[in-house]
Amino acid sequence: MLDTVSAFGHDRWVPDPARPVALRSVAPVFSTRDVGLWLQHYRTLGFTVEAHGDEYGFAQMGSVVLHVSRNAGHDPLTTAGCAYVDVEDAAAVWRVWSAVPGGRDVEPVETDYGLSEGAHVDPDGNLLRYGSRR
Q: What ranges do the domains of the chain cover?
């Protein structure tokens, strides 16, 4: 049973405390035309990768896990995905990832909300934004 409460002029659903739900992790599923090339790019970024045939794969670094699925109709302008990654040192991530050919990178900037944030766009147009506390 879910109840509603009003917050900031909007109703929102509040879960029933008698039925708690515990989430443990989240893993975005990115799209690509070629799983093998996607995995090769992420291996070069420093991820451990694993293919499951030509249709699916995983890339993992520490507790961050990304999934990838082959999509023959993948269009970087309309079907690319994105994820935000909390990192220890955004500048260090930029130094490593910006040296990898094939992607596009945005050097981290200091934000007014206390983070240093940068970005990496893979060859399929999938965006990894990342940030660290200053």
A: 25-72+80-133
Q: First vs last Cα of the chain: how many Å apart?
A: 42
Q: What is the pLDDT along the chain (134 residues), one digit of tens a residue?
A: 445 555 555 667 777 778 888 888 899 999 999 999 999 999 999 999 999 999 999 999 999 999 999 999 999 999 999 999 999 999 999 999 999 999 999 999 999 999 999 999 999 999 999 999 98
What topology is assigned to 25-72+80-133 in CATH? Answer: 2,3-Dihydroxybiphenyl 1,2-Dioxygenase; domain 1 (3.10.180)
Phi, psi torsion values for 24, nearest 5 degrees: -110, -35
Report yes or no: 46 and 61 within 8 Å, Cβ to Cβ.
Answer: yes
pTM for this predicted structure: 0.84
103 neighbors 94 (Cβ within 8 angstroms):
no
Cα 87 from Cα 112, distance rounded (Å): 18
49-63 b/e with 16+ CB inside 10 Å = b?
Answer: beeeeeeebbbeeee
Structure tokens of 74? 């993948």
